[in-house]
Please model this.
Amino acid sequence: MKVIELLEMSKLKKVAVWGKFDGTHQGHLEFLRHARELGDELYVVVIPDEKVRENSGEPPAKTAEARKRELIGLDFIRDVYVDSLSDGLQSILRLRPDVFAFGHDQKTQWEEKLQQYLSSQGLHLEYVYLGIYNNGIHTKDFRHRVEKRK
Model:
């Protein structure tokens, strides 16, 4: 075999995801595991605190660094970054993933902007939307139910 063929065979397929991951729950874990199955290595981008506040109108329950620490401890995640679209997604530009996976609820203007931005930077990735996880129940739904019980 030629050296180039060996290099191509040894190239690991990198998968990236992004999200706030504020209070990692079973639905997040299922999403992350399914994303990991799309390639050889999974990389996670945690949205910074100020961007969570800007996008949702309220601050995250945990800091970006705390959310990052929770995720980096999972053995199927290769690395975790704190980054955002407005910060230039430098982690993604350096990483150059092959696939970017989104959750079923991530079909928003931000994902469209992300795709446009990465394409403008010369990254032409495969974009995959994963199915519903945790029966469609999210952390915010759990919080809402708890608040109603009080």
